[in-house]
Each structure stands twice: as C-alpha cells, then as structure tokens.
Amino acid sequence: MFSIISDYLKKKMDLFKLEVVEKTLTSAGAITFSILLLAMLTFFIGLLSVGISLWLGDILQNISYGFLSVSGFYLFIIILMIIFKKKLKKEFTNLILKYFNN
C-alpha cells in the first residue's frame, strides 16, 4: 500500500514538473515573440511617422510643420493614455491573466 502511494506521489510530482516546464517554455516563447513584434512595430511606426511628417511638410510647404503636426498627434495619444490610464491598465491586466490561465 505504501509503495502504491509513493509511486502515485512521484508520478504526480513528475506531472507537476512537466506542467511547470511547459508553462515556462510557452511564456518564454510568447515573451520572445512579443519583443520581436514590438521591435518591428517600433521601426514601422518610426518610419511611417517620418514619411507622414515629410508628406505633411510638403503639403504645408514647411518640413518643420509636418514634424510638429505628427508630434502633436503623438502628444494627443499620450494625453488620452494618461486620461484613460486606469481602464487601460485593467484591460491589459485582464488580457495577460487570460493568456496565462489558458
């Protein structure tokens, strides 16, 4: 009887270890993918911003105005993020918890 319980506990511990390894590797893969995606998105947004700034500068006949317009847009986005900080935090927290609970 003791050996059966001992075997059961050993197998349960092995299963727990495998589940921890699986969650760790899944998380590491997701984090790596997210970092790469964020880097590519940063390059894309940066180059797009420069392109739009130059285009607006051409329309406004002053390159500086184009860059100021795009900067103003980003300032507007930052202000919105500050205003809706609590709601954004809650949504991102729920998203992360939902990912790790699956």
TrEMBL record:
<keyword id="KW-0812">Transmembrane</keyword>
<dbReference type="Pfam" id="PF07332">
    <property type="entry name" value="Phage_holin_3_6"/>
</dbReference>
<keyword id="KW-1133">Transmembrane helix</keyword>
<protein>
    <recommendedName>
        <fullName>Holin-X, holin superfamily III</fullName>
    </recommendedName>
</protein>
<keyword id="KW-0472">Membrane</keyword>
<feature type="transmembrane region" description="Helical">
    <location>
        <begin position="63"/>
        <end position="84"/>
    </location>
</feature>
<feature type="transmembrane region" description="Helical">
    <location>
        <begin position="33"/>
        <end position="57"/>
    </location>
</feature>
<dbReference type="InterPro" id="IPR009937">
    <property type="entry name" value="Phage_holin_3_6"/>
</dbReference>
